[in-house]
Amino acid sequence: SDSMNMAGALMGLGNCYFDLKKNEPALEPLNKAYGIYERRNNLKIQSWLLTNIAGVYQATGNIDLALDYSFKALDMKRKVGENNFSLSTTYISIADLYAAKNNFNEAIRYSLQAVEFRKEAEDKHELASAYEHTAEIYYKSKKYNEALKIHKQAIELSEQNGFFDILKGAYAGIANTYYDAGNLKEAYQYRLLYESAKDSVLNQESSKQINQLAALYETEKKEQENKALQKENTLSAKAIKQQKIITYFIILVLIIVGLFAVFIFRSLKTQRKANKIISKQQADEHQQQEI
To answer: What is the pTM (predicted TM-score) of this model?
Structure first.
């Protein structure tokens, strides 16, 4: 249990270093975490770690090691029985690495396979992303006709579903492709579409931020209302408690006064009775003296 907790902490540390672009320090904790999960035979997390390590090597420019770890991750995912959509993400990473080595035939092969895998899934956004990714590889390999064809597939799917983030990249990509192919008129038209899509993305992001701020404001407002209500309830409870104490005190005082009154009444009654007896004795004595 402790070693598994340690492995999770090491993996988190390595990922944090990677996010901070501290690639060399990221490798040690990631490799140590991998060793622990390997001894525990946790293949699924091993595949994640292999993917992360491959990403670190890619960031440092060591493409061969990045490819080696990517293929290990792919093999591990297959052993675990990951679905094709999960495999497609590794295929895209491998395509990127082959493209970095200018091995465009392999890059296109793996990217097209990722497209086929994503066609099987219901996530159209990720399919559009895979189209766009493949089009970019065709563009880098100077296969402009194929690049234009795939770009347009990404655009069609994105326009149907409002994927402005994909549209922005696709319009820019197709504009660059037309420009390099010498079709300046089409390049200009798609550049205009890119600017429009970029504005739409900015508007979406602004709306999202506004909605997040509004939700945050409502949450804070509700929290303040709850605090005020709790405070009011606390004050009310305190007032009720004080009122009960005062009531109990008044009742106690009334009881004491009542008992004191009873005591006085009995004392007066006893005194009157004694006075009557004394008066009668005095009258009898006086009568005897007269006789």
So the answer is: 0.66
